[in-house]
Amino acid sequence: TLIAPKGVNRFARGPKDWRFKYDNVCSKLRSLHKSRFRIFIITNQLGIGKGFISRADFEAKMEIIAEHLHVPFTVLASIAEDEYRKPFTGLWDYLQAHCVDEHKLCVKTSIYVGDAAGRPSDIERSRMADHSNCDLLFAENIGLKFKTPEMYFNGDDVDYEDTLVRKSREGIVKPVDEFVQTYFKGYTEIVLATHRSNVLNNI
Hints:
- This protein is an alpha/beta fold.
- Helices cover 32% and strands 16% of the residues.
- It has 7 helices and 8 strands; from the N terminus they run E-E-H-E-H-H-E-H-E-H-E-H-H-E-E.
- The protein has a two-stranded antiparallel sheet with strand order 1-2.
- A hairpin with a 2-residue loop joins strand 7 and strand 8.
């Protein structure tokens, strides 16, 4: 959402293999901080849990990013396939319980910006399809206003992006009741019931 690898790889190859995706990322976040918004980075990092990325490398990258941003922010990372992994709402629940004071974050005035919105590829714009729709579903599950990075950081693409997000949202299949995820980890079957009913999972 905020950064991208320097080269052609879709995923970074180390803590220094990154660049800001837009020239105004720093100024936008500094403006939010000046307006007394709190900034949270909520990210799925299953690669850490699987050993593909070291926790030390991830933390080093966050420190380097912080040095460039010059604004305070809090990082919440899910490193396993559990209730904390987006689009499940575990990290939001944890944030509300442990990362804010007695005044909870207001859903109505908060904005969630994410690049996993289920958008298709666009050859004319040289853009690959989104790897999933977990960010859009995460915002839907909580009731947060959602924007793609293109919508938030690049005003020229607002109408185009809004159309893509609307189509992606229309394709979401609403569950009838509480979603239960079953998967196998090693030799153990793990069944996870979400914290709230009508939680949307990836489609």
